[in-house]
Design a protein that fits this description.
Layout lengths: L7 H6 L4 H21 L12 H10 L32 E2 L4 E2 L8 E3 L1 H4 L8 H4 L6 E4 L10 E4 L2 E2 L4 E4 L2 E4 L13 E7 L16 E6 L7 E9 L3 E9 L8 E13 L6 E14 L5 E14 L6 H10 L19 E10 L2 E4 L4 E24 L5 E25 L4 E17 L2 E3 L15 E3 L3 E19 L4 E18 L2 E19 L4 E12 L3 H5 L11 E13 L3 E13 L2 E7 L2 E6 L3 E12 L5 E14 L3 E3 L4 E3 L12 E11 L2 E10 L2 E2 L7 E2 L2 E11 L10 E7 L7 E4 L9 E4 L7 E4 L3 E3 L4 E9 L1
Parallel strand pairs: 7-10
Antiparallel strand pairs: 1-2, 3-9, 4-5, 5-6, 7-8, 9-10, 11-12, 11-45, 12-13, 13-14, 14-15, 15-16, 15-17, 16-18, 17-18, 18-19, 19-20, 19-21, 20-23, 21-22, 23-24, 24-25, 25-26, 26-27, 27-28, 28-31, 29-30, 31-32, 32-35, 33-34, 35-36, 36-39, 37-38, 39-40, 40-45, 41-44, 42-43
Family: Belongs to the TonB-dependent receptor family.
Protein name: TonB-dependent receptor
GO biological process, one term: siderophore transmembrane transport
Length: 779
């Protein structure tokens, strides 16, 4: 018997075309917004907020938005932090911080500082959300330097808005370059929703946002040192300035250094990172924030195995590692990634009057570096055979933009936001070739003495102009919340290479309607419907020559229905969802940590997410979650490798496991603390044709530690041990990308063996058992 979930809105829209879907949803949003703004006289009387309480609420928000709209933003579900006067953040936590009580009119899944502080400092935001119901996270290493990938409701992180403080960090694998885990206060995922005022061009899979540390009012800081498996060592220190005189300014500066070996085979990975934050507050509730980070990394690009290589390792122990021999083409120094990155976010929130506010959020990301791979051997100028390396060289990847918006309290029920978003992104890259250095290893592609040729050069980018408007209405003593919004995106994308230039203008209308109703203090229902899109990025277009048309935008219509309940002992959240996706874009892994996009037609995703957590009882805080997903491929797809039409219609969608489940348990007694978690992902298809699959698997982690009593200036001395893969499981956790079928060819390397042709997908594998010990303290 088939299992089918249909949201109420689906009953109305199921027989409509996609254009009719969009028209109906747009009209519904407009009608609700109109009625909400002008029906005040017919609404129940609500108690007006006093001026002092308005200023207090405004002061408690960040510069990302006005106090009255804070709880409606997809990335800022923490805006309603206080559900009663004097309540603490910890009182809203369940499962030891693995779940938080939410009130937004859409699904929100959050891990808080309580849980983050128990994890290893090398954990990235991806490691922290591994046990949330909507995501399957795969990471290639235990040092946190190489990022990872996300699957969510049948989509991937390339369909998500991966953000830090409301600004895009690019793909999930880049999160490790933006912020250190000690400076992350919380990580939230809104799997089915993205606020209309967010500066994102890819949010079909929702939003993942990391909230950075806000500097303390008091002078101090914290430091930690970690050592663990694979020769991991990491040092971190942060200094908080405290309030600087009577200026209202405070800030912090942090530095970290990480070193580790590759967990399989030869390779050394190193990372240096700086975070800087500053904040200025004014008495009327206005504030300004600044966050800047710098990251420099040199690491070995992992070799990802084919199915045959993985099976050989599992049954014989023979790995697919990089070689330790300098004369071998697959020498680990010939597979290097060198990257420098700067990230800047500077939001400003200005309270103009009691009813009017202005928000400005400029941002900048700039990266530069290169990746190398073996290219075989050829004769050098002296006539001797010498290994060569090929490069992906990024001369500069720049993303710059800003959002500006006005917020106005129309009356005691309605808050209107109107704004503009501008974004300009450019990628300037080339593909040079060089001889390997005499002692082995890839030289810088800028070193002319080793260069063979400069290779092709491509410049790709896009410019976005967008207008957005939304109205947030509260009625029935704030029990009923209605949020209607509309965003219109105008984009000009272009690509230039030696052979010519091409461009494409596109538009995307993005309506949204969210409604929640608090039945009482313990029960809430919510519904959300919206349109979202994904535009090929400058990096996507950089891998396509100008004789290949720029891909059409992916578009999604999404509906979500949810219910929440909580009491003094537990909290739970249940959400049903339905997605219809057209022009589905997936990505093929090319090596050198890069991908090429291609389109596979239409897909449908339906399912449910359920999460439940207990509050602390006798020191124990349990947590559990599950997702059921029925995702199907709705189109046949042409395979250019085999020159055949794949009969993929009706098959399980690629990289969309049907079942995922999680269990966690936290225990605290006096200074002792412990947390254990188990994650299960069901079988999934890893090819569009559905002819290659991976089985389900289980992963696990464990934390134990102790908080010692403070002494002298040492305020919170703590020792903890973090373990991953305690059972030593050898499992594939996900595909590196999409392939048409298991017959697609690719070049394969394995140890010191000669390169050969392999077939099908390549995979991330759960790293072997690891243990990390950390000592830390604040001061």
């Amino acid at each position: 018997m088939s299992f089918r979930i249909i949201a109420p809105s689906r009953l109305i829209l199921s027989r409509l075309t996609y254009r009719q879907h969009l028209a109906a949803l747009s009209c519904l949003v407009s009608a609700v917004g109109f009625c909400a703004s002008f029906s005040t006289a017919h609404a129940q009387t609500a108690t007006p907020a006093k001026k002092s309480s308005q200023l207090a609420r405004a002061a408690s928000t960040s510069s990302a938005g006005h106090a009255r709209t804070r709880s409606t933003k997809a990335i800022e579900a923490h805006g309603a932090e206080e559900i009663s006067v004097g309540s603490s953040r910890r009182k809203r936590n369940g499962g030891g911080g693995m779940m938080r009580l939410e009130t937004a009119p859409h699904a929100v899944q959050t891990v808080t500082k309580e849980y983050i502080d128990m994890r290893s400092p090398v954990s990235t935001a991806l490691d922290l959300v591994k046990n949330l119901p909507s995501v399957n996270v795969t990471t290639p290493d235990t040092s946190g330097m190489q990022g990872g990938q996300v699957q969510t409701r049948g989509l991937t992180d390339r369909d998500m808005a991966i953000m830090v403080d409301g600004i895009s960090a690019g793909q999930a694998k880049y999160l490790a370059e933006i912020i250190d885990s000690e400076n992350v206060d919380e990580v939230s995922i809104t799997p089915g929703s993205a606020a209309r005022d967010l500066p994102v061009m890819s949010a079909a899979g929702g939003v993942m946002n990391s909230k950075s540390h806000i500097a303390s009012h008091k002078f101090g800081g914290m430091t930690d040192f970690s050592y663990g498996t694979n020769n991991l060592s990491r040092e971190f220190i942060r200094l908080d300035s405290g309030d600087i005189g009577n200026t209202g300014i405070r800030g912090y500066f942090s530095f970290s250094n990480t070193h580790a070996r590759s967990w399989m085979g030869s390779g050394i990975n190193e990372r240096k990172h700086i975070d800087f934050g500053a904040r200025k507050d004014w008495e009327n509730g206005s504030n300004a924030n600044l966050f800047i980070s710098w990251n420099s990394a040199d690491w070995t690009i992992d070799n990802y195995p084919t199915e045959d290589q993985f099976m050989q390792y599992k049954h014989t122990g023979q790995g697919w590692d990089r070689s330790s021999h300098p004369g071998n083409a697959n020498y680990w120094k010939n597979n290097a990634d060198h990257w420098n990155q700067i990230f800047l976010s500077a939001p400003i929130h200005t309270v103009i009057t009691d009813k009017l506010s202005f928000d400005l959020h400029p941002y900048l990301t700039y990266g530069q570096g290169w990746s190398a791979k073996p290219n075989g051997a050829e004769a050098n100028p002296a006539g001797d055979m010498q290994n060569t390396v090929g490069y992906f060289q990024e001369h500069g990847n720049r993303v710059v933009g800003a959002t500006a918006s006005l917020g106005y309290d129309i009356d005691r029920h309605n808050h209107l936001t109107f704004g503009y978003w501008y974004n300009n992104s450019v990628s300037d890259r080339s593909y040079p070739t060089s001889f390997a250095m005499p002692a082995g290893g890839a030289p810088s592609p800028n070193w002319s003495q080793y260069r063979i040729d400069k290779g092709d050069r491509q410049v790709a980018g896009y410019e976005i102009h967008s207008l957005f408007i939304q109205d947030t209405a509260k009625y029935l003593h704030d029990k009923l919340l209605i949020n209607g919004g509309f965003k219109f995106v105008m984009s000009n994308a272009w690509n230039k290479d030696y052979y010519g230039r091409q461009g494409r203008n596109s538009t995307a209308p993005l309506p949204q309607l969210s409604i929640s109703y608090n039945i009482n203090d313990q029960n809430q229902i919510y519904v959300n419907a919206e349109g979202d899109y994904r535009q090929p990025t400058e990096n996507d277009m950089g891998w396509l020559y100008t004789d290949v048309p720029i891909l059409k935008n992916q578009y999604s219509i999404k509906e979500e229905l949810g219910y929440r309940y909580h009491n003094r002992y537990m909290m739970m959240d249940l959400s049903f969802f339905n997605y219809n996706v057209t022009n589905r874009v997936v990505d093929q892994y090319l090596g050198m940590n890069n991908y090429r996009p291609f389109s596979i037609g239409s897909q449908t995703m339906r399912g449910l997410d359920f999460m439940i957590a207990g509050r602390e009882i006798h020191g124990f805080s349990p947590y559990a979650s599950v997702e059921y997903l029925h995702a199907t491929q709705d189109s046949n797809v042409f395979d250019p490798y085999q020159n055949v039409m794949l009969h993929s219609k009706g098959t399980q969608a690629i990289m969309a496991p049907r079942v995922m489940a999680n269990f966690g348990l936290t225990y605290k007694y006096k200074g002792f603390f412990a947390n254990g978690s188990v994650h299960y992902t069901g079988p999934q298809s890893v090819s569009v044709a559905g002819d290659q699959r991976i089985p389900g698997y289980v992963t696990n982690s464990l934390t134990v530690g102790y908080h010692f009593k403070p002494f002298g200036f040492v305020k919170s001395p703590t020792f903890r041990l973090n373990f991953t893969n305690l059972t030593g499981s050898i499992v594939r956790t996900g595909a590196m990308g999409a392939v048409y079928s298991k017959h697609d060819p690719g070049t394969v390397y394995s140890g010191s063996s000669a390169a050969y042709t392999g077939y099908g997908n390549t995979f991330m594998v759960e790293p072997r058992f690891s243990m990390t010990g950390t000592i830390s303290t604040s001061f």
